[in-house]
Amino acid sequence: MSILSGSGLISSAVSGLTNTYGVLASQNTDGTGLKVTNLTNLSTNVINQLGGTNNSFVSYLTGNFGNMDKNNDGVISAQELQEATTNMQMQGLTKEQITNLCSNLSGSKTYATVLENFDQIDANHDGKVTDAEIKAYSYKSQRQRLHTELKGVKSSNMSVYYVDDSAYGEKPTSIVDNMYAET
Fold this sequence. Notes:
Layout: H1 7-25, E1 34-35, H2 36-40, H3 44-49, H4 56-63, H5 65-68, E2 75-76, H6 78-91, H7 95-101, H8 109-116, H9 118-121, H10 131-151, H11 175-179
Antiparallel strand pairs: 1-2
Helix pairs in contact: 1-4, 1-6
């Protein structure tokens, strides 16, 4: 079992949001950022650029528009997006965010393990998991697995080799020294 890392989950969420933001915000000719109308009136061209009609990043931006628009001007600026994604990287992702934003990773071992064991991974019980918490959980799991596997291992049929130093006149530096006597 390799060490699980949440960086793949978190970077998938951040890059997906950033890419989606870039595509949607580019529809504004004034360059101000992302407006609600960019999210609700998607052209066929934009839908194709985003990879289809069921885009979880568009859904996330739509559902969290008010939270991300910190100055309530009706636009998510590049700075506001940067603050939101930096917050995700630093503070981690909620189970809902992982489910919504990382669905493209649904076949990955990390994604499945994090969702199945979210409460145990969330060591500080803040409702979010960070890369560090995911790695710590992985180390702990590996340690427990090895402890369980090795618990039943016991030494048996051991032989002890003993060399009587008095038989050689002087003390050898190792057993091998006496195996190949000089002639």
